[in-house]
Design a protein that fits this description.
alpha+beta, eight-stranded mixed sheet, 3 helices, globular, binds calcium ion
């Protein structure tokens, strides 16, 4: 990271820290926090690292439900990416979990540049419609809120 980028990033982190007191929520031995500030995926990961954590890995349907509730239905980056090898999705914290809950038709790598995952929700066409919370791959340079996790 260049010095200028580092300065900008440090200011950005400072601004976020000033706005949001981090309220970590604890679930099954880890701490989690949702941040509504929109960042690119790599900047979100850098931010989580400054807090001693990482973008969240999600390893079970229980944890998935918990993280989605924490994000209050907002789209939010999680620590899942296939930027290194297309189609080989890996957790940024190296968690070996193979759990996933992609939205129907996802990940579809639209435009050839969707390498980062976020939690999302779609409306299933039932009567009445049902909101289905699932994952989507998006362009890593798009900006969204995000969920960090760290060890207790
Ligand atoms: Ca997608």
């Amino acid at each position: 990271m260049s010095t200028m980028k580092l300065v900008v990033f440090t200011l950005l982190v400072g601004a976020i820290m000033a706005q949001d007191t981090v309220n970590w929520a604890i679930f099954e031995g880890r701490s989690y926090a949702y941040f509504s500030k929109s960042l690119k995926w790599t900047d979100a990961q850098e931010f989580c690292l400054t807090l001693g954590g990482s973008l969240a890995s999600i390893r079970s349907s229980r944890e998935d439900y918990f993280v989605k509730a924490l994000a209050e239905g907002h789209r939010a980056w999680i620590g899942y990416s296939d930027a290194q090898t297309e189609g080989a999705w890996l957790w940024i914290d190296s968690d070996p979990s193979t759990y996933s809950l992609w939205c129907p038709g996802e990940p579809k790598n639209a435009g050839g540049h969707q390498n980062c995952a976020l939690i999302d929700s779609i409306r299933l066409a039932f009567s009445p419609p049902i909101e289905f919370k699932c994952w989507d791959d998006q362009d890593c340079h798009s900006t969204y809120g995000f969920v960090c996790t760290k060890a207790l």
